[in-house]
Amino acid sequence: MNFSKDWAEISAFILLVIGFFLAASSGSAFLSYVIIFLCGMVVGRFWFQQRKNVKIPYFIVIVGFLIGYILGSYYGNKFITLLLFLIGALFSYYLHENKYLK
């Protein structure tokens, strides 16, 4: 394995594992939902910063984390988890685009 060539796949796997353990360690559905919403907001900020330079490897890394989190979330609905992640990303993008956040 060449890290400079396969960095996206390696990073996606690492974040998949981190997402799994992060979700598994949350003790309730509410806490799990808050964490995934905040993670979505971080992704929205990254998306805003990279809006002119979006690349597939970044998408692979984000999806790796999201899959790991969804697999590890014992509490709460998987669809709601995905929905909150997307809402958080879109909300953060909107806030940055309209200059409410810098």
For the structure shown, list the relevant keywords:
single chain, 102 residues, mainly alpha, 79% helix, 0% strand
Brief digest:
The chain has 102 residues and is an all-alpha fold.
Largest sheet report: none
Radius of gyration: 14 Å
Q: Averaging pLDDT over every residue, what do you get?
A: 91
The first-to-last residue Cα distance is: 38 Å
Query: What is the element string, with H for helices and E for strands?
Result: HHHH
Query: Which oligomerization state do the chains in this entry correspond to?
Result: single chain
Number of helices: 4
Percent in helix: over 70%
What is the structural class? mainly alpha
Principal-axes shape call: flat
User: What is the percentage of strand-forming residues?
Assistant: under 5%
Supply the number of structural domains: 1
Number of distinct beta strands: 0
User: Uncertain runs with pLDDT below 50, 5 residues or more?
Assistant: none
